[in-house]
Amino acid sequence: MGDLLTAAFLGLVEGLTEFLPVSSTGHLLLSSHFLGFESAGKTFEVVIQLGAVLALLTVYFGKLWQVFSTVHRDPASARFVASVTLAFLPAVVVGVLAHDFIKSVLFETPRLIAVMLILGGVVLLFVDRLAPEPRHHDATALPFRKALVIGVVQCLAMIPGVSRSGATIVGALFLGVEKRAAAEFSFFLSMPTMAAAVGYDLLKNRDVLDFSALSEIGVGFGLAFLTGVIVVKWLLGYISRHGYVLFGWWRIILGAAALGALSLGY
């Protein structure tokens, strides 16, 4: 029962934080550290991310169907697919080259995660106030050059605690993308990025993967999916009205609390 409750909690954490600019990886790794939870081959942590991917695909199924069913005859659809693909490519290159270092060194450093949470929170507070006047209001029509720059910035999120959505949103805001459109482009970009990351993780760790705790994996996967759907539907409306200040302060408070706990030997 204790393992199931832990799995449920971590599934909630994944679903609640994956699409917020607060670093789901940082939340998961810190939660696992303080709860003393670790699955063989990180199977649990990898698989429940698929629940969040499925949540995004569910919410945007209609839009994605419209795009891919018309990509062969609609220049706007073709341009949108090309811009997301272009933004996705830098993460492929960096992820493949640096995968082992990221997983074996950066993911095993809770203090680094806490520091990056704090620094990312400060950046969010800064950009929410000082981002340039938006010039792009449609996430599906960003210029190729700006899509590529956003993709390069996304690579910073391979440092746990930075946040994939946070990095892409901040990059987009500084490039003159409106707040809602920045979050929506981050959603679209996350689909191939997360799917590729999970697939590559499973491939690299196939010899040590452990699916014996299927009940825990199922609980975590299901809750990550359900809460992910809720967050995606809620987030765009919230940031259109309130911006990113709440998430900046949350990161700073959580990072400071984690540093304090680590300093006390937890």
From TrEMBL:
Gene Ontology terms: cellular component: plasma membrane
A Pfam family found in this protein is BacA
The main enzyme category here is hydrolase
Extract the InterPro entries matched here: UppP (IPR003824)
The main place the protein resides is membrane
Instruction: Kindly state which keywords UniProt assigns to this record, in alphabetical order.
Output: Antibiotic resistance, Cell membrane, Cell shape, Cell wall biogenesis/degradation, Hydrolase, Membrane, Peptidoglycan synthesis, Transmembrane, Transmembrane helix
E.C. no:
3.6.1.27
Catalytic reaction annotation: di-trans,octa-cis-undecaprenyl diphosphate + H2O = di-trans,octa-cis-undecaprenyl phosphate + phosphate + H(+)
GO terms for MF: undecaprenyl-diphosphatase activity
A biological-process GO annotation: response to antibiotic
Membrane topology designation: Multi-pass membrane protein
Q: Which domain of life is it from?
A: Bacteria
**Subcellular location per the Swiss-Prot or TrEMBL entry:** Cell membrane
Q: What does this protein do?
A: Catalyzes the dephosphorylation of undecaprenyl diphosphate (UPP). Confers resistance to bacitracin.
User: According to its UniProt record, which protein family does this protein belong to?
Assistant: Belongs to the UppP family.
Question: What additional remark is attached to this entry?
Answer: Bacitracin is thought to be involved in the inhibition of peptidoglycan synthesis by sequestering undecaprenyl diphosphate, thereby reducing the pool of lipid carrier available.
Protein name (database record)? Undecaprenyl-diphosphatase
Query: What is the species listed in this Swiss-Prot or TrEMBL entry?
Result: Tabrizicola oligotrophica
